[in-house]
């Protein structure tokens, strides 16, 4: 089943996570997801399930942003958390991310909601659950994806140095238990969703300028957000 495009792990990440594919939980996950894609409309498309890893090689990873699961509407999900395909209107959370960018680093609000350029600069845009059934939010949760992505985060923490983890909202903040704070940097805030942002828990966190300062202080090139 590894030949299935859903489960093709990019080469640069194989040394870190390929052993997971032989574990019973992942074999069960493979079966479940393969069946879901064969019987239902699911997102993202098969080739984009591991887009976060495809566009952000392990050796270039500098920043990690953790989302929950993919968008479940037509043409939205592209395998990168918070990101949507070209030409798709921006979901509310992404709109608030761009508004914070405007106020934080004076970046003009972009027309495209595709965050692929971030990924290509070393921003790992990782959802905890990598697939979803159309129009059913969270429908692929608790099938094994979270075990896989938790292991990925934990191994990143163990084997890398000076990564910056941006933990937005209660769900993402729980991932701090997987991260060695003596080796890495954690910036946390409320979620960019309107419910959180409108209560004052998102706007003004200045995570984008703060991330670039940490990168510069560690001799790394800043992100062109």
Automatic annotation (TrEMBL):
GO terms for cellular component: cytoplasm. Coiled coil: none annotated. It is found in: Cytoplasm. It comes from the Bacteria. InterPro entries: UDG_fam1, Ura-DNA_Glyclase_AS, Uracil-DNA_glycosylase-like, Uracil-DNA_glycosylase-like_sf. Residues 54-215 form the Uracil-DNA glycosylase-like domain. Its EC number is 3.2.2.27. The active site is at residue 69. GO terms for molecular function: uracil DNA N-glycosylase activity. Keywords: Cytoplasm, DNA damage, DNA repair, Glycosidase, Hydrolase. Belongs to the uracil-DNA glycosylase (UDG) superfamily. UNG family. Excises uracil residues from the DNA which can arise as a result of misincorporation of dUMP residues by DNA polymerase or due to deamination of cytosine. This is Uracil-DNA glycosylase.
């Amino acid at each position: 089943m590894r030949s299935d495009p859903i489960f093709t792990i990019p080469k640069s990440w194989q040394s870190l996570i390929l052993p997971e594919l032989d574990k019973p939980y992942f074999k069960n996950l493979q079966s479940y997801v393969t069946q879901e894609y064969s019987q239902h409309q699911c997102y993202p498309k098969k080739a984009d399930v591991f887009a976060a890893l495809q566009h952000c090689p392990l050796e270039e990873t500098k920043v990690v942003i953790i989302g929950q699961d993919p968008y479940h509407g037509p043409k939205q999900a592209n395998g990168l958390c918070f990101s949507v395909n070209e030409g798709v209107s921006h979901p509310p959370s992404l709109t608030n991310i761009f508004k914070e960018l405007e106020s934080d680093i004076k970046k003009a609000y972009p027309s495209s909601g595709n965050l692929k350029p971030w990924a290509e600069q070393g921003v790992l845009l990782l959802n905890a659950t990598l697939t979803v059934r159309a129009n059913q939010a969270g429908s692929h949760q608790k099938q094994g994806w979270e075990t896989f992505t938790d292991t990925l985060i934990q191994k990143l923490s163990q084997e890398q140095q000076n990564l910056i983890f941006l933990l937005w909202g209660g769900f993402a903040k729980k991932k701090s238990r997987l991260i060695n704070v003596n080796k890495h940097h954690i910036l946390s805030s409320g979620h960019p969703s309107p419910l959180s942002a409108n209560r004052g828990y998102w706007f003004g966190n200045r995570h984008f300028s703060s991330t670039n300062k940490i990168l510069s202080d560690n001799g790394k090139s800043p992100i062109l957000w």
